[in-house]
Amino acid sequence: MGLTQKQFSDLADELKQLFDVDPAAAVARARAVIDVSGRDGNSMLLAAGILVDAGKTAGDLGAVEKGLECFQLLFAGFPDQRVLGYNVANALMARANLLWANSLDWYVQTMEDRATARRLYARVATSGAVDANLRAQAHTNLANTLRDAYRFSEAYDHYSQALELDPYNGVARIHAASLLLRFAKRNGPGAETMVAVAVHHLKAAKENPARIKELVSEWEFKKLAESFHHEFPALDVPDFSDATPCQRFIAEYRLFLADSIEGLDLTLEKWDALVLDGISDGADAIKGPPPLFAMFNTLKSDYLAARHVAFQALHDHVVDSGSYSDTEDLAQYGIVTALMTLAQRACLDILDKVAVLAHEYLKLAGDSNKVYFVTTWFERTKNKGILRWKSPVDHEVKRGNTALIALSELARDIQDGGYLELKRAMRHASTHRFAVLHDSLPTAIRESTVIAHYAHAEFVDHLIGSLQTSRAAIHYVAEMISKHEAIHDDGRPTKQLSVREMGRR
């Protein structure tokens, strides 16, 4: 027999108070609740949450695994309840983090748990059926997992999306500010802007401590509140009131290519300033500039072209001379939708080129004509099929090249079962088959195995997301090269190329 509403409320208060004072005691009490309540869903849900949260705080792996077991049991019975999936994700991340052993092998050993957590967070974050505040929390937690894998560009995108849904989410604001200040320390383009935005986030978070306490435990709040002790200089955040529609589009979705994650400098005519600093080339230097520069220039050009095409399509800056048959299913045809699918496809093609560039630069084994982003970084052992980094990648990561962690984990998320898999599926659909967009998906469509149907709004979201993903990959591969050059600096001269304007000839 289940608890009455008052009994349940009293139990919840008791467990929370215990957690705030003595996490280990809260774990013991939660275990007792599960032992007594059996399979009562509400009691199990409450106790499992305490087991995970208090277990994480107390460093009790067994408690976290018991909480995970309970959440998985509940989720298996109610797979459409995305909040249960969110709880499973939290438990998976708690387990993964408790397994940390000061070894970068942790990333491979916990990869499946963390990839599953990211997928579950993304399901909640993108669901229109879920409360906006919970969606914001899912974006924040997803961002945290990306940040911990050195995927800073993607992490900042998700913190930003969290704040669009819940501007009072101080947790997202504090973490976003931390990333901005990290990048600002490089003193590159936009450093002052990033500091200004970081200050804005920290001030807003400091003004709403009660909201932060609603989102995290008392233990976590104390850690986050340490950021409030910083001095906050008076700086103005960027003003885009005089920006062009294209500039606003690029700034809103953070689609610029520069050593920055926030802030578009409108005073510059060329704001996509990300370049390679220099390449050590040894004896081959007499043959001319390293081919890597040409590869990176092409990557950058492809991305900027995809971004341009996407902007033109999304803002109807296209004249269509075609007329099309009405397929009676609210489908959209014409140059605009074709440009949208073309831009999305180009973004995913960029990922394969990123892999080819890394393959050549790191001198990985294999035919460079058969290199794909999803297969470049990992291999499985012959005996047990255990996933591991390929030897040169592993060696580079162990030397401190953390950008390869970012690239390899992005590849995992693009694969089947990853939270970005639909973007890859969309690319395949528009490349090898037919992708048809609709005002809204009709309830009845004549099925075809060679046509993939998408709602227009859904496809737009994935197009923007694909631009952000390809931008992130270009950032990571540039960072990988920079770190490699620093790690392997043996005093040889590096080849640096001047930057010049490219125009029509």
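the 2nd protein, sequnce then structure:
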Amino acid sequence: QVLAHQSIVDMVSEVLLDVPLAAYTTGNVEWKDDSRSDVMLVPGAHRHYPPILIEVQQAVNEEFLDRVI
């Protein structure tokens, strides 16, 4: 999966949060309804950084937004 490559993780986290390279790594996210998110980026040594959730959707609708929020 392209979004899980460390170079992409670094680019996304740096652009969104202006953090140093390798500040984030991929993690696993499973919701209460047993569905899974596409990519969850979690901070490494910098635990005070927020997690980053990436969802790839063909269509964004109210049901999707209710589930994510």
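The longest strand covers residues 39-43. Strands lie at 24-27, 39-43, 52-54.
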